[in-house]
Amino acid sequence: MKVSTKRRKVRRGRPLKTDAAPDMRERILDAAEDHFSRHGFWGVTVREVAQEAKVDTALLHYYFNTKRGLFDAVFERRAEIINKERSDSIDAYVKSAGSAITVEGVIDAFLQPILQRAATGDQRWHNYFALIAQVNNTPVWGGETMGRTFDNVIHHLIDALRKALPDVSEEELYWSYHFLSGALTLTLSQTGRIDRLSEGVCKSSDFEAIGRRMAPFIASGFERLCKPQTAKRKKIP
Amino acid sequence: MKVSTKRRKVRRGRPLKTDAAPDMRERILDAAEDHFSRHGFWGVTVREVAQEAKVDTALLHYYFNTKRGLFDAVFERRAEIINKERSDSIDAYVKSAGSAITVEGVIDAFLQPILQRAATGDQRWHNYFALIAQVNNTPVWGGETMGRTFDNVIHHLIDALRKALPDVSEEELYWSYHFLSGALTLTLSQTGRIDRLSEGVCKSSDFEAIGRRMAPFIASGFERLCKPQTAKRKKIP
DNA sequence: GCCAATAATCATCAACTGATGAATAAATTC
DNA sequence: GAATTTATTCATCAGTTGATGATTATTGGC
């Protein structure tokens, strides 16, 4: 008696054009993003990704050659979108503000596209932001990858900040951005640390709460470091 | 002709007490710290660690049971040291400042032990801090690990900040700390991003430069968020 | 001086890893 | 409509992985 324990026969060869199947390449990228964002490059196997995307592992190599190629493709896909949005947002603010340009305005314009995408609750963008957070804090290759992907937009941000901070020193400007970058990426990494630490008072998923606080906090730091010491604290003797 | 290609015979069994060998357990932890800090939990194999420590892989399992056990031991070893230093530093400042306590003073007291250890150039502490940075931005288990290891000291910090910020809202306080945590850990992660972005103007290894800027930047943000809006910026109409 | 506990290496395992050449089938080109 | 290109699965490989039971040698307690 032949029991049908044979595994489901999967069609081989190029798929029918009429198959309204979603683009396989995108499906692989979605699955990879999901896994990489949760476990990082080394914590994921190509098999896990292939399984979630419901394709053979060979297909990943067909499209992306190597595991690293797949990772890079994931990292770049949404970067193009968010970089354009941030760049446009800064330009729009600088144009509308004119000579009334402020540090907080620039930073808010820079942050809004990210925080709004995060606030929609779209899990795929959440995952992507968590991935950025990990890469930003990854030694050896994280700095290189972040730079390659985001330096253009960051220089755009810094140019706008220079307009709001006449005669600012380059050093103060870059260090201030560094603190901004750290605060932003930890916020996007969604580890639940703040929920636990605050015993529920703050929720790491509450991007509206973050949106109201982040720009003022960071702008205040920028002004303290980057403006000539008009507001130097008087020491109590 | 017997050519001596046999590999070096290694002594078996418990080592002689007279062997002035460094404590094997510590040697394994050093090697593990070195690797985990650079490549994260999944990017390291127990073989690599064993090889650097010049011991058999079985010895890692003898002392730490599992790879995760080894990782946790690495993470906890220096945490105890740095937590005590930070806690003591905050206490000393609060005591010496009395009623003249300031936000910047508290934050500076909190940061100094870390930045000083980083400034000595001790590679092992550098590695450890880079490890914290990665864990802080690791989804799934990073928040839990950070909380378990550091929440005590952070609550100590937040208690001190409450003294400098009467009637502060809990929510503002915790979000402000979150931004501090992100800025600090990215700074400690030493990815070289800032060096590249600033084209050499800032160096991520220049902890003296960081030490001068971080407390003012962060304290300024805290005051902006946590103080009743006495200094609310007047909007230009 | 015997014996249990300790600290180490050896030898090996079953499972997993990234990758690839071959096979297959549809689409496109000419 | 034949030939080439594209997209997919199949079958498999050589190397790596975390882990462990067996073995060996020394220490420390009685």
Summed up, what is this model?
The first copy, chain A, is mainly α and 237 residues long. Chain A has helices spanning 24-39, 46-53, 57-64, 67-97, 103-119, 123-136, 142-164, 170-189, 193-197, 207-226. Chain A has ten helices and no strands.
Provide an overview of this structure.
The structure is a homodimer of 237-residue chains. With 237 residues, the first copy, chain A, is an all-alpha fold. Chain A folds into 2 domains: 24-64, Arc Repressor Mutant, subunit A (Orthogonal Bundle); 78-226, Orthogonal Bundle (Tetracycline Repressor, domain 2). In chain A, 68% of the residues lie in helices and 0% in strands. Chain A contains 10 helices and no strands. The longest helix of chain A is centred in the middle third of the chain and has 31 residues, at 67-97. The model of chain A is unreliable at 1-8 and 230-237 (pLDDT under 50). At the A-B interface, helix 1, helix 6, helix 7, helix 8 and helix 9 of A face helix 1, helix 6, helix 7, helix 8 and helix 9 of B. Chain A binds a DNA duplex (30 and 30 nucleotides) through helix 3.
